[in-house]
Amino acid sequence: MSGPVRVLLADDHAVMRAGFRMILESAGDIAVVGEASTGTEAVAAASDLRPDVICMDVQMPDMDGLEATRRIALDPDVEAAVVVVTTFDRDDYLFDALAAGASGFLLKNAGPEELINAVRVAAAGDALLAPEVTRRVIARFASTPGAKAQPGAPLPDRESTAGGRDVGAFPTSRRPAVLSAEVVGMDAAAGSPAVELTERETEVLQLVAQAMSNAEIAQRLYIGEATVKTHVSNVLQKLGARDRVAAVVYAHRHGLA
Fold it and tell me: Which parts of this chain are annotated as the region Disordered (predicted)?
């Protein structure tokens, strides 16, 4: 990507937007190109400004952030990655945000560096979930592979699915956060331990499952970032996985994470 990462801030609190702007623009490689105080404004600004990343609050007047995210994800002319940034650590917000097309989910109690990193990684296509929510996503995908989410169906309790909160994050993408392997883009082969990965591909998959971005994997393995992207692409193809979420599920199912 040439030039700074272009960011749109959508939050109904002006003080929060000002704080995010100050944090993000202090990074040097991020430019806040617009602000919105309602979901309707966010959808319009996304179309007009064409940002790379949108930091989206959930609870906003007029139209909430989840519906705004859904509309932005369905707009073929908008390629922005949406990172939902919310105060509320709730399963319904988490899974509804991912189902709406969000690239990531971050809590507002995250530190400045976490916010900056989330924007950078989202712009690169490797968005991260907040550490507090990761195990719940893994449990949602991996524990009941045959089940399919139904619209309006109740979500599991945080404690029953999470087993705790002190967990790491893993990359995700703009795919629905649902239960079945079919819907997350993992075909029958992905559920089979017979999938043959090379030693290097296995290493890359393990690091993907440890929340590492392509740049971090490249640094760990002493290889180029372009090479990492090739390995990730090969892993997804071999697993029949449409995205990194499905690959992480595979890694957890088969003891690679």
Answer: 146-169
